[in-house]
Design a protein that fits this description.
about 80 residues; alpha+beta; Glutaredoxin; 4-stranded mixed β-sheet; 3 helices; about 45% helix
């Protein structure tokens, strides 16, 4: 099982773009997505405030700001083959 964690903010266009991309690609890989909104959490804002959206794949930072469907599929395919 591939576990994805997406750190986001409210009213973030890049975050919505990343979420839409993930919704389209995740069913192919049987991956689970956990979305974490950082607004209002000082520690998370300090860690990720300038980088959102930030996507972690199985606990490792994989993308920040943007990724393409091709890059996401490539990254998730590597996880499947591990």
């Amino acid at each position: 099982m591939i576990e994805l964690t997406l750190y986001t903010r409210r009213d973030c266009d890049l975050c919505r773009e990343m979420e839409e991309l993930l919704e389209g690609e995740l069913p192919r890989f049987g991956a689970e997505l956990r979305r974490i909104e950082i607004d209002g959490d000082a520690a998370l804002e300090a860690s990720y405030g300038q980088e959102v959206p930030v996507l972690f794949v199985n606990g490792r930072k994989a993308f920040k700001f943007r990724c393409t469907a091709r890059d996401l599929r490539k990254r998730l395919s590597r996880e499947v083959s591990r």
